[in-house]
Amino acid sequence: MAILIGHRGARGLAPENTIAALQAGLDAGVDMLEIDVRVTRDGVPVLHHNKCLQNALGKRIGGKAIAFCTLAELRALRPDLATLEQAITFVEHRVPLMIEVKPHVDIQPIVAVVTKTFSKGTRATDLLWASFSQKTLRGLHTAVPELETIVLEHWSGVRASYRARQLNTKRLAMNRRFLWWFFIRQMAKSGYQLSAYTLNNPAKAARWEKDGLYGVITDYPDRFRRQTGTTTD
After folding, report:
1. Is 0.85 topped by the overall pTM?
2. Which of 124, 117, 67 minimizes the C-alpha distance to 87?
3. How many CB atoms lie under 10 A from the CB of residue 27?
4. pLDDT digits (tens, 9 = 90+) for 78-110
5. Fold for domain 3-15+28-36+92-223?
6. Rounded Cα gap, residues 100 and 150, in angstroms
7. Who's near 229: CB < 8 A, 6+ residues apart?
8. Phi, psi angle pair for 5, to nearest 5°
9. 231 touches 20 (CB < 8 A)
């Protein structure tokens, strides 16, 4: 069965990239949780998708990018803003955590947090690196090679597989809009573990699962029945 991956925690069930969203994903029975990471001006990795701070409704708040604000300044506007360290500690081995690092983000504070959590009991199998930026993935893999790497790609299967070969990984995640059954079959035959984002349709997931889809990255993991090993409408 395709593994179930909560997108930004479970953004359809709780405010994305928050501890509440991580809990919602866990409650829905995910096999993995995906989060987005950026770094503040004072070097703290935080969970956030956009460059600029947004509220729970997706509306921009504050006038500066996250990279130009301190954690204290950001939390004055968004008290539920979670740090990467908090997220890793909260999930605590229950499922692997896919850490998507945004392009052009300073990776050193992120590497430092991950290394720190290792000393507190986090295992290499608890975390995975992911990014749309090949430069970022190379840097992360070089810094912490124990973590598996996931290549994120918008639309090009050729580019995705090329990037994967460069990083010696078989894990890929691609936009569902550019996937179709024959491509999924070919990737599976070639040994790739291909996940589709953002896939909220259980019926389509079930069809693609038969073609070899490895993972479903979804906003609504509660729509997928996990107990019987099948997906359902």
Report:
1. yes
2. 117
3. 14
4. 999 999 999 999 999 999 999 999 999 999 999
5. TIM Barrel (3.20.20)
6. 9
7. 1
8. -120, 120
9. no
